[in-house]
């Protein structure tokens, strides 16, 4: 099973974390399954950018981003070349390292 290393984030995982998830799982699902409650205002339907992550390692092992995801990412806070929506980023067999950006464009937090 691939491992996801998460950089420390003051709200979602202050100490950072390392979790595992089966290949074929989205990064968002893996985070939520491991009590890292990343925002996902659209319920993982690829309709917002609140689950934006930056993939620091293992970017090329993920599925390729589709046009809808790329269009949404243009609106994400802190966009970088390795940015992905975690709900659309499907794990393969390789480990990945991610950073959850400090901010999102969501003005009100969802309680999931």
TrEMBL record:
Known Pfam families for this protein?
A: Fer2 (PF00111)
Record's keyword annotation contains Iron: yes
Q: Which cofactor does it need?
A: [2Fe-2S] cluster
Mind telling me which PROSITE patterns this protein's record contains?
2FE2S_FER_2 (PS51085), ADX (PS00814)
Keywords of the record: 2Fe-2S, Electron transport, Iron, Iron-sulfur, Metal-binding, Transport
Q: Which GO terms describe its biological process?
A: P450-containing electron transport chain
Record GO terms (molecular function): 2 iron, 2 sulfur cluster binding; electron transfer activity; metal ion binding
Domain 2Fe-2S ferredoxin-type, which positions? 2-104
Q: Which domain of life does this protein belong to? A: Bacteria
Family named by the database record: Belongs to the adrenodoxin/putidaredoxin family.
What is the protein's given name?
A: 2Fe-2S ferredoxin
């Amino acid at each position: 099973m691939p491992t996801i290393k998460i950089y420390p984030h003051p709200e979602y995982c202050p100490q950072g974390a390392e979790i595992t998830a089966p290949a074929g799982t989205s990064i968002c699902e893996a985070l939520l399954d491991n009590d890292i409650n990343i925002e996902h205002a659209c319920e993982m339907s690829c309709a917002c950018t609140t689950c934006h992550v930056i993939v620091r390692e293992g970017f090329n092992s993920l599925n390729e981003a589709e046009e809808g995801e790329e269009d949404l990412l243009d609106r994400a806070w802190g966009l970088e070349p390795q940015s992905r929506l975690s709900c659309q980023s499907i794990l393969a067999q390789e480990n990945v390292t991610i950073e959850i950006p400090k901010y999102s464009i969501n003005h009100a937090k969802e309680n999931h």
